[in-house]
TrEMBL record:
SUPFAM superfamilies: MFS general substrate transporter. Belongs to the major facilitator superfamily. Proton-dependent oligopeptide transporter (POT/PTR) (TC 2.A.17) family. Coiled coil: none annotated. Its main location: membrane. The chain crosses the membrane at residues 86-112, 132-156, 177-196, 202-227, 358-380, 400-421, 484-510, 530-548. One of its GO terms (cellular component) is membrane. It comes from the Eukaryota. GO terms for biological process: oligopeptide transport. This is Nitrate transporter 1/peptide transporter family protein. One of its GO terms (molecular function) is transmembrane transporter activity. It is found in: Membrane.
């Protein structure tokens, strides 16, 4: 019997690994190509093709973006609780594919769009049926993204067996190349796809990513027999609530003197602890009461709303401990979000000529962010890790907490520099008498904005990848899709904080003579540099907060049972903590 189990285990270990990456990356690249290719220029499609008013079009995209930032929680829940990551990605990709086909067909068939505008006539807005096709398409896209985003990154990392010494170093390497592939697809979308949409036609501009998405679904399915498939372990949210309820019911009990007296059940925890069982930690002792055994508890058929194992209690502790680190990433996204708003408006007022006949579109300035991010990731993976490894002795070079900290520092400099560049831009406007002419081009090169764009890209290469790696590594194994969804919710929260901050600054910086840090019409008369420096100050405070959280953070202790060797349990736990 033991021989059969070992043989089966050996066969399972052969699955996964680098051979699965082309299939997984193909799915992610095409999903990101579709999302960014649609989103980057969708405002133009809604206003020029469907003749939506600008405010209505902007609100439509905002609502879709808000929905798409929440659906990863739903997709992660379904994957972790019921069907697993593979089938969640597959079904979500098909849903996304249907949405893309609907939108592409509406762009090709004239009867699904209002007639073109004629000179001297009011443009006819899309009717209810035409808008219904649009909304259904966008909703299907949001639902599809919700299943793909949190699961692809976790499913890819699942392909590397953490208990196999030959594969443990591949996980952190995977996160670098996952983000690199995602960035490359974004770069392709904001350049090639946007150009095709504007200059060749929307049928081609939407049809190309639709076909690419179909091919990615086929490629992903072809790799089915190569993947490592981890079975869903039931609803993680239910388990978390059960621990909280059990701890509350037993809140009046005195804590046991020896943690070894707390409830353990390897058979019960087996399906949710395949990568190693979580061990007891001394923090948040009030939750430990959920694992105190009393005479009323039936250990043969335990009522999980009254008693829980140490592993399940530690799952809840792990999620709670991750909260402060999750919150620290919000302000970096808030700072990053200014590139698509105020930095873009700065670019519109500056000389964007690359040659006498070619002018860089203001919206394409994000290329400098993406290129810097991709370059930083490549240098980090090929050079920085090897150098850092000599000093730290860590296979990954530095810990993901250190990586995030470096990203925070770089982001501080990004907004600091942005403020000084805005001062220079306004000085040029004053010098040429263009302060009262917000639509005139100021004779100052747009390339003065490159440093702030590039620094944001460098910060993202450090912080965002470190953040993603942190969620995957520190989340309980059975909740990794949910943890990946938390990464996307931090991005959503960062954008919402940006909206709130802009609204507050616009309201409270208004002067009696109509002055404002963030004026509605004329950026030349504002104090955008003060706004950038306010974000810089907030980021400094956030950095201090993060350093405190990182210093106090307790890594999850795991008892890894090795298939070979006879190391003691204590040594195994310490090894897992160091990793």
């Amino acid at each position: 019997m033991e021989h059969i189990e070992e043989k089966g285990s050996h066969a399972a270990r052969k699955k996964g690994g680098l051979v699965t990456m082309p299939f997984i990356f193909a799915n992610e690249i095409c999903e990101k190509l579709a999302v960014v290719g649609f989103g980057a220029n969708m405002i133009s499609y809604l206003t020029s093709q469907l003749h939506m008013p600008l405010t209505k079009a902007a609100n439509t995209l905002t609502n879709v973006g808000g929905t798409a930032s929440l659906t990863p929680l739903l997709g992660a829940f379904i994957a972790d609780a019921y069907v697993g990551r593979f089938w969640t990605i597959t079904v979500a990709s098909i849903i996304y594919q249907i949405g893309m086909i609907c939108l592409t067909v509406s762009a090709v068939l004239p009867q699904l769009r209002p007639p073109p505008c004629n000179h001297g006539q009011v443009c006819e807005e899309a009717d209810g049926g035409q808008l219904a096709i649009l909304y259904v398409s966008l909703l299907l896209g949001a639902l599809g993204s919700g299943g793909i985003r949190p699961c692809v990154v976790s499913f890819g990392a699942d392909q590397f067996d953490e208990n196999d010494e030959k594969q443990t170093t591949k996980t952190w390497n995977y996160f670098n190349w996952y983000y690199f592939a995602m960035g490359a697809s974004i770069l392709l979308a904001v350049t090639v796809l946007v150009y095709i949409q504007d200059n060749i036609g929307w049928g081609w501009g939407l049809g190309i990513p639709t076909v690419a998405m179909f091919l990615s679904v086929v490629a992903f399915l072809i790799g089915y027999h190569l993947y490592r498939h981890l079975d869903p372990a039931g609803s993680p949210f239910t388990r978390l609530i059960q621990v909280a309820v059990a701890a509350y019911k037993k809140r009046k009990l005195s804590m046991v003197s020896d943690p070894r007296m707390l409830y353990q059940n390897d058979e019960l925890d087996g399906p949710i602890s395949l990568g190693g069982k979580l061990l007891h930690t001394k923090h948040m002792k009030f939750l430990d009461k959920a694992a105190i055994v009393t005479e009323e508890d039936n250990l043969k058929a335990p009522n999980l709303w009254r008693i829980n194992t140490v592993h399940r209690v530690e799952e809840l502790k792990s999620i709670i401990r991750m909260g402060p680190i999750w919150g620290s990433g919000i302000l970096l996204i808030t700072a990053y979000a200014q590139q698509s708003t105020f930095s873009l408006n700065q670019a519109k007022t500056m000389d964007r000529h690359l040659t006498k006949s070619f002018e860089i579109p203001a919206g394409s300035m994000s290329v400098f962010t993406i290129v810097t991010m991709l370059t930083t990731i490549a240098l980090y993976d090929r050079i920085f890790i090897k150098v850092a490894r000599k000093f730290t002795g860590l296979d990954r070079g530095i810990t993901f907490l250190h990586r995030m900290g470096i990203g925070f520092v770089i982001s501080v400099f990004a907004t600091l520099v942005a403020g000084f560049v805005e001062v220079k831009r306004k000085k040029a406007a004053f010098a040429h008498g263009l302060v009262d002419h917000p639509h005139d081009i100021i004779p100052i090169s747009v390339f003065w904005l490159v440093p702030q764009y590039a620094l944001h890209g460098m910060a993202e290469a450090f912080m965002s990848i470190g953040h993603l790696e942190f969620f995957y590594d520190q989340a309980p194994e059975s909740m990794r899709s949910t943890a990946a969804a938390l990464f996307w919710t931090s991005i959503s929260a960062g954008n919402y904080v940006s909206t709130l901050l802009v609204s507050l600054v616009h309201k409270f910086s208004a002067g009696p003579n109509g002055s404002n840090w963030l004026p509605d019409n004329n950026l030349n008369k504002g104090r955008l540099e003060y706004f950038y420096w306010l974000i810089t100050l907030l980021q400094v405070v956030n950095l201090i907060y993060y350093l405190f959280c990182a210093k106090m953070y307790t890594f999850k202790p795991i008892q890894v049972v090795k298939k070979e060797g006879a190391e003691s349990g204590e040594n195994q736990v310490e090894l897992a903590n160091k990793a």
